[in-house]
């Protein structure tokens, strides 16, 4: 899945949820279910996610939403280490989709530049 986030150190939960097209409550639920996901909290107690957290969320999203794993199945897969480019995870399809999404983003940028 192509995640469209600006390049910065920390992301708010709303930004992350929007990038994955899910509710913030689902992100918080995944935090409880997957011990590998431990975002920091700022001085106000709000969750802030690093790029490493986003990578972990991407793995969780891929297993649950794209591959149809159960929560327990995804936990087990993550314990063994998930390589999103491994053949057994259907990486060929994932790579094609990611590449097409990147191309789409570039084309949209060109379209917007022309229209401006």
Write up this protein.
This protein has a 3-stranded antiparallel beta sheet. It has about 120 residues and is mainly α. The model has no long low-confidence stretch (mean pLDDT about 85). The chain contains 5 helices and 3 strands. It starts with 10 loop residues before the first strand and ends with a helix. It folds into 2 domains: about 1-80, Multidrug-efflux Transporter Regulator, Chain: A, Domain 2; about 85-115. A hairpin with a 5-residue loop joins strand 2 (about 40) and strand 3.
Features:
single chain, 116 residues, Multidrug-efflux Transporter Regulator, Chain: A, Domain 2, 2 domains, three-stranded antiparallel beta sheet, flat
Secondary-structure topology with pairs:
Layout lengths: L10 E2 H8 L3 H10 L6 E2 L5 E3 L1 H16 L4 H9 L11 H25 L1
Antiparallel strand pairs: 1-3, 2-3
Which CATH architecture of the largest domain?
Answer: Orthogonal Bundle
| Principal-axis shape | flat
Sheet bearing the most strands, described? 3 strands, antiparallel
What count of helical segments does DSSP give? 5
Question: Could you provide a short overview of the structure?
Answer:
The chain is mainly alpha-helical.
């Amino acid at each position: 899945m192509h995640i469209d986030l600006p390049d910065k150190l920390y992301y708010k939960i709303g930004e992350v949820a929007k990038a994955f097209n899910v509710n913030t409550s689902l992100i918080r639920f995944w935090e409880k279910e997957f011990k590998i996901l431990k975002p920091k909290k700022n001085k106000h107690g709000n969750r802030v996610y690093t790029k490493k957290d986003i990578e972990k969320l991407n793995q969780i999203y891929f297993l649950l939403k794209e591959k149809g794993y159960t929560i327990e199945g995804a936990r087990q897969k993550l314990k063994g280490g998930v390589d999103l480019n491994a053949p057994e995870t259907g990486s060929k399809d994932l790579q094609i989709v990611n590449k097409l999404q990147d191309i789409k983003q570039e084309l949209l940028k060109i379209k917007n530049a022309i229209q401006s």
